[in-house]
Amino acid sequence: MTRMAPHSPRAPLLIVEDDSAILELLEEELQDAGYATLVAASAEDALATLSHSEVSLVISDVRLPGISGLQLLQQLRTDGSEVGFIVITAFGTIDQAVESLKMGADDFLTKPLDLEGVREAVFRVLEHRRLAERFDRPARDEGFHGIIGDSEPMHALFRDATRLARSEAPILILGESGTGKELLARAIHAESPRAEAPFVAVNCASIPGELMESEFFGHRKGAFTGATDNRQGLFQAARGGSLFLDEIGEMSPNLQAKLLRALQEKTVKAVGAETEDPIDVRIIAATHRDLEREIEAGHFRSDLFFRLETFSLRIPPLRERPGDIERLVSTLIAKHAAAQEKRIERIEPAALQALLDYPYPGNVRELENAVMRAVTLAEAGVLSHADLPERLRQRHETQRRHAPSGTSQATRPEQGNWPSLEEVEKRYIQKVLDATGGNKRKTADILGIARRTLYRRLEEE
Ligand SMILES: Nc1ncnc2c1ncn2[C@@H]1O[C@H](COP(=O)(O)OP(=O)(O)OP(=O)(O)O)[C@@H](O)[C@H]1O
User: Keyword Phosphoprotein on this protein (predicted)?
Assistant: First the structure.
């Protein structure tokens, strides 16, 4: 493992390029823009420089004489370096660009280089990192922009979402109903350079077919009966920001064609308008459907699918990450207790066990509804088994009856020694600590809390 010098947003940029003409051009352009620069003619040289010099951002060509720019990126990320990284790929190698973002690049540039674009990309990446560092801690304490998930697949999802958020490409979010697709879309928007502009969400299944075009693109006065004024569409309302198209699988074929055109041309035409208007919107689409099947059935356009699915993110269903349930339960109890101005001090072990054992076909939404209901019904500060919806209780009862006697101490409702939420939290922290072999940094990362907070909790024990 190579030891890396720390990075700071104000440290020099490192340009890695074996073509001396391009190297000079980049150096000159970036120095003119006020950045200090270091150069390397190979990835090996770059690693040597990075081991002793502080660097804010690496801009590297993919094709290099020894190890490639992508291998350099991989090596850095494997070594735990979070230095900014912009990849330069040859024209027509979009696969490489996608690959690089997946591997942890912040952005990519395509040859022939547009120098203005280089400056903008460098500025954007450094600015984004500066903000991310500033807001990192509080955001992590409440999950990823409110999305709770300590399991490895969720951490990988948050990492991918953060990377994709920085690009301008459309994103497709896949996941069963209730997995948090809209939450993720909002998180991507909040992580993106468009965070200050509007996030507009629309459920494509909820707009009647005949109104869809006008809803999306707006209309001119007199375009149809009832069009008494000019009206903006969703694309105009989301100007500068992100447009979230939920249930995209429900969009009519006619509108799919128009959306594809809007994505390709970056213009839209209001109903009844003569001319096209430019748009500046990032599309985030989501579906719980299997779009490939929809294509086979002739319901979804394959060209639109390919345009959207280059950058797709899949949210795993809750049953694939049962380790997330416990923290979701404690967070959701706290959320709904606060909303209902109630104090919940304890959860009955049998209630917790029932919540942990259930497979959640309706995913987090179903879990949240169960917890919200239980908080409403809870009395004397105790969330008990009887407060849960019947289907959870029944399943748990059946399991309990079939369990060999003595196997499940904690699930015996007659046991009076119920742990408090605080105790549940402590046990959970211990579980994660054990799983990481006592590694406190990893434990804090998995728990999504600052290391400071973890030390404090451990001291309290
Ligand atoms: N990981 C999570 N952490 C906290 N809350 C979550 C999480 N996932 C989902 N939720 C909550 O579950 C509910 C459903 O989430 P959301 O509407 O984003 O799901 P969805 O996948 O878009 O559902 P649908 O496909 O039915 O539209 C919301 O109340 C959301 O706050």
Answer: yes
